[in-house]
Amino acid sequence: MLNWAPEAIELVRAIAAARPAPELTLVGPAPPGEALAALAELPPGHVSKYWQGSASGGVEALARFFAEVVDLAAADSVIVLPLRGHGETDAFSRLVCTAIHRACAGRPPHVVVAVEDPEATHEFEGLGVATIFYPGFLRAALLAHACVDLGAFQFMLALLGGGLRVETWPVPEHLRGGLFRDACLEIDADGEGRPVTLLGLFAPGEGGAPAMLLSPGPGRPLRDASALLVLAGEGEP
Amino acid sequence: MVFGAAVLGTMALGAGPARAGEPIVVRFGSGSKGGGYDALATALAEVIEQREGRVRLAVERTRGSCENVHKLIAGELDAALVQYDVAAEAYKAGHAHASLAELGGAGTAPSGGWMCKLSAAEAARVELRVVGAVTDAAVHLLVRRPIRLDDFAAIGGERIFIGKDGSGSFETAKAILGAAGLTAEAMQLFSGGADEALAAMSRRELLAMLRTTERGHKEIREALASGLATVGPLPEDVLNRLIDGYPYYRVCPIEPGTYPGLEFSLPTACVSSVVVVAAPRERADDEAFEADRSLAVEAMIRGLQAIERDKRRAALGVDLQWRGFAEKEPIPLHPVAEMHERLESRRAWLRGGLIALALGAVLYGIRRVVRRRRVPGAGLESQLSNPLVPFAAFALVVGVATFIVWSLEHDSNARLRTLNDSFWEMNTFATGNFTTDTLKTPAARLVGAAATILGLGLLAWFTAALTNIFAQEQTRLWRRLKEHLVVLNFREDMLPLIRLLRSPGPNRQRALHVVVSDALPRRVRLQLARVKALTIHQQNPEVPEDLAGLRLPRAARVIVLGGEGQGREPDYDPLRIARAVHQACARDPLGGVQRARPLGVAATAADIARTAPALPVTLVETSAEAQAEVFQPFAAWLVPVDCRRLAHRWLVMACRDRAFAELFNRVVAYSDDNAEVYTAPAPAWLIGQTWRTVRRALVQLQGRGGAVPLGLYRAADPGGKAPAGGTSHAELRRRLLVNPRPDERLVAHDLIVALCEDEADLLRIVRDTRKIVEG
User: Fold this and answer.
1) In the A/B pair of chains, how many CB contacts fall below 8 A?
2) Can you give the pTM of this predicted structure?
3) Chain A closest CA to B703's CA: distance in Å?
């Protein structure tokens, strides 16, 4: 987690509560003493390392820091938080992302960036950012769905609750010649017999890259599908 | 078949009761040979004979109504066809004599001028009863061309024809002349028949003819077609005096097109011919006689009904009626005829009831369809502000009043002869110009007064609705305060919420009310002001009185946003706002004003439960760690949403599941694809089915884009009573089951949660599962 500050302690708690609990490394501008004091209230083992570092010293220096000290390329996922007090917040995050990109030689891990201004989204293009998150949109989406249908709202909460997993499954060979309907009828449980729901599939989109097709309709052929999108969890075996 | 007067081996009604098995012979007076009465009587006799009953009709030819009524009174006939004015005069004469006799002056009374030279003492010997009116005739005033006759006084010494002495037509003409202030004796009357009169008219020896005959009569048509004469209206004052003095007639029109060249409706008088039976007063208690008489009347009625239905006898013009053929009908119906009248009346009511029921069912069906499809403008409030509604109601009032007034008065009021006359008169009334000059009867005046009052009210409504339309802002506000969305304590960073609520989706058409603080930047207000169907309220959301105008109990949802806590705007507290919402609802007339708690008294769970029914589902944005406890008293209607915690969860999920972020964004964005989440009630045929069956049925159906079933949204108490607080509160007590067990059975009130294109598509797909599940 980059640009972490002690105010974001709740996010650390949330990550620590995830199952399976990931190994968490924090990087932020705060001095280690201040950060460790804030982290002290957490149970031991939740945070493996804390490094002090930011883009204030330049992108190149930060990139070297990421590559040589933090070993960012080995991370499974990277969260870039908005860091207030260092100029324009999202621009500062973009510098951090540039450093990540350079540190990982153009092949960064799964990077999730939280922005303060949704209009800044396009500035992260070409930096290997997988997801850009704007908290205001999440709030708006949740409240708007609650206005439409409380069932839909509860489903959003369930998605965020951690009990559900969005998984990518390979397309079974014997279904290659079939339709999405056939896959829905056949795939209703995981290997351990727990109920799952087939939500959609991945198929070549613009430029040939796999694109997510949600609920593509029962008549959609599976012949060009590269994977299936499955919602697992919560159900009882 | 015409029977002679002397029928051997049978028993005539007048002679005494027939023994069992013997035919009952009715001596029936008709008219002159070849005339309408003769043809009808002969046909009736034939029909009765064909029906093989005991009753036989012995038709006797006479000179017409006068001779018939004389013979009925004398006991020489049992029944006869008589023009109603003549019969009514005989009845009236008899009763006048009876009244006089009771006073002891009958013997010394001078002889009067009853029609057909009837004597009151003679008429008092029998009781006349009407079997039914069978044909109808109109008075025709034929005037030699090119003379136009507007006043009978203009006839002067010219010769006129008014029919043969002794006929009903002659008596009617005498009554009309009397209404014009003339006497037949003082006129130069033509003494021949109708044919001879026409010939005399062609020789210019005759000025006018007054003939009472059916409309469209062949001879009159020929006379008009030849240009010999024109048919003219009876003057209005003559008609009114005639009806006032002789209410056995009725005012009626000779409609345009009845005769060649007749282009306008002509007001005239009509009189019906009735079948009358006479019973000597001394046999009033003779039960056997009455029984035979009843059989005879029954046979005659059935015979007349058969003739009425027989298309081959349509030329006879029989239209059997019990009532309503004259302005007043003093002669009572025979009991058998009364029974038929009651039966017909019951059938008519039954038919009317069935039609009303069918109409009601159709209207109910339309209402249900309109409600189901949520047709815009179908609600009561929309109708109140729709000027077409009072306009339509005005037209309905005028239409109904037109028909009722015409029904009541067209027979007696020369100014309301046609529906057209009545329509324009009722228009005058309904626009507030009531007058007693036009309408004669109290019932019609009452209808006219009601039409005036209703019309004025509807016109006022119409004017108000139009005014309302011109006051657009007010109208919009009125319409927007039902099933609306309310956002309290709005702040700048929640503009995406407004964008989402106005993006294509179910909420797009819902009115949106946003309560903002003074500190909200002007540029944000300007942005909000450009949003369609959005109303900005600058109020303090913590003050219940400020929220009263939002009509919160009628809101679909209330969203309470938390403060930013950065000092830029007043820091309104979500909990205090929630309390204000509660108070505002409790004070609202729709929210239970009678149970409102006084201000200043702390909210308790008991109070909240007491006032809960009209509280809208309220979503409160909060980040308080102890939210569950803080908002616990409001749990029945309030959902705390800890957005910061959920944002953290989102980041965690996005890191853990690579596809999560895209899935979530696609699901919540109301984009064009087939991936929005909706719920649909499980129909009856899915209740009790396993989730495996339901799921398999749903995924097979295409709809517009297909549906991916995700799970069930189950009531907290399936099949139990609805919780206090109404549907919104019940919704909050549901729990979500994602990926239910395959053997989980659906229960009543379950909602199916699915990914689909829109709510309507899901409803359609769920409805179509019936074919699969039951097939």
Assistant:
1) 258
2) 0.55
3) 9
